[in-house]
């Protein structure tokens, strides 16, 4: 079998067009959705991600705040900034780019973001709501993955899904999203025994390791006809790549996401969607 390509670029475009219309509607009712991004330090990859979040927001008519702070910025200063954004009625979404410098307690910062403005879906409140199937704001990368399944009508009911990632940003939220769709979910990580054997059982593989020296998803780990979602962004001799040995895995899978042009663009599109959702709730609240 040769896999069909899941075009995150095309689906992200579709999501963005819908978001753009929603932004126009909100503006007509007197609300300009506004996303605040916060970047601490000068990691070039993080800066690139924040740049493209800023750029996409502007393209869709979403207002932005752009806070870029030195790596030496103190934890209490960052807490104060988040509180300022929480209390700013013009700001609907707050995105604190991760990872934060080591001297800053990531949980303390995320836990300070107002759940109403948590467009990353990372606060304990959002995580708990997601577990209960009640979340309005869900983490962007996992909800982008779900959007891809929906767009290509890839059904999840009764399927064996194996996730390689256990982070709060990707693996854990995916568990609840996949369970909600009646998949059977296995979460694998660095200490998992018999990883290849588990992967070979999977109808759906979602891989997000991001280090090709530690892990490469090779064709022998993939069942004929499996769906492969590659969430990773790593580099092979300077070139952007995912976890999968793409050309070889493509020969066995039924569907596969490329890197770039797969899950990455979806992450950004879903962030825009969350920003509009957060702004829309406000409209409901103000009548
Ligand atoms: N609070 C927080 N929220 C995040 O959502 C978050 C984060 N921190 N930290 C880092 C990860 C990573 N991430 C990506 C976003 C877009 C692409 C993306 O658009 N990638 C393009 C290629 C980009 C390129 O060329 O470098 C693609 O795959 O086609 C990738 C990765 C969001 N993250």
Automatic annotation (TrEMBL):
Residues 6-120 form the Tetrahydrofolate dehydrogenase/cyclohydrolase catalytic domain. Residues 139-280 form the Tetrahydrofolate dehydrogenase/cyclohydrolase NAD(P)-binding domain. Pfam families: THF_DHG_CYH (PF00763), THF_DHG_CYH_C (PF02882). NADP(+) binds at residues 165-167, 233. InterPro entries: Aminoacid_DH-like_N_sf, NAD(P)-bd_dom_sf, THF_DH/CycHdrlase, THF_DH/CycHdrlase_cat_dom, THF_DH/CycHdrlase_CS, THF_DH/CycHdrlase_NAD-bd_dom. The keyword Thylakoid does not apply. GO terms for cellular component: cytosol. GO terms for biological process: L-histidine biosynthetic process; methionine biosynthetic process; purine nucleotide biosynthetic process; tetrahydrofolate interconversion. Its EC number is 1.5.1.5, 3.5.4.9. Keywords: Amino-acid biosynthesis, Histidine biosynthesis, Hydrolase, Methionine biosynthesis, Multifunctional enzyme, NADP, One-carbon metabolism, Oxidoreductase, Purine biosynthesis. PROSITE patterns: THF_DHG_CYH_1, THF_DHG_CYH_2. Pathway: One-carbon metabolism; tetrahydrofolate interconversion. Homodimer. Catalyzes the oxidation of 5,10-methylenetetrahydrofolate to 5,10-methenyltetrahydrofolate and then the hydrolysis of 5,10-methenyltetrahydrofolate to 10-formyltetrahydrofolate. Belongs to the tetrahydrofolate dehydrogenase/cyclohydrolase family. This is Bifunctional protein FolD. It comes from Nitrososphaera viennensis EN76. The lineage of its organism: Archaea, Nitrososphaerota, Nitrososphaeria, Nitrososphaerales, Nitrososphaeraceae.
């Amino acid at each position: 079998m040769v896999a069909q390509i899941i075009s995150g670029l095309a689906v992200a475009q579709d999501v963005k067009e819908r978001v753009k219309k929603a932004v126009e509607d909100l503006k007509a009712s007197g609300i300009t959705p506004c996303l605040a991004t916060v970047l601490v330090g000068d990691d070039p990859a993080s800066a690139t991600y924040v740049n493209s979040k800023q750029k996409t927001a502007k393209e869709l008519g979403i207002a932005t705040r752009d806070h870029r702070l030195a790596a030496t910025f103190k934890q209490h200063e960052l807490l104060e900034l988040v509180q300022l954004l929480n209390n700013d009625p013009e700001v609907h979404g707050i995105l604190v780019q991760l990872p934060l410098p080591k001297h800053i307690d990531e949980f303390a910062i995320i836990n300070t973001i107002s759940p109403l403005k948590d467009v990353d879906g990372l606060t304990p409140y959002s995580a708990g709501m997601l577990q209960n199937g009640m979340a309005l704001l869900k983490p962007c990368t996992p909800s982008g993955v779900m959007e891809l399944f929906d767009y290509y009508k890839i059904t999840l009911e009764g399927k064996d899904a194996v996730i390689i990632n256990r982070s709060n940003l990707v693996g854990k939220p995916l568990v609840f999203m996949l369970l909600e769709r009646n998949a059977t979910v296995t979460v694998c990580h660095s200490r998992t025994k018999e990883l290849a054997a588990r992967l070979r059982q999977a109808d759906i593989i979602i891989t997000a390791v991001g280090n090709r020296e530690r892990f490469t998803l090779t064709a022998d780990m993939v069942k004929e006809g499996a769906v492969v979602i590659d969430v990773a962004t790593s580099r092979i001799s300077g070139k952007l790549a995912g976890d999968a040995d793409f050309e070889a895995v493509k020969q066995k899978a039924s569907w596969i996401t490329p890197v770039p042009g797969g899950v990455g663009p979806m992450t950004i599109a879903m962030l825009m969607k969350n920003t509009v959702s957060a702004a829309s709730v406000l409209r409901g609240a103000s009548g």
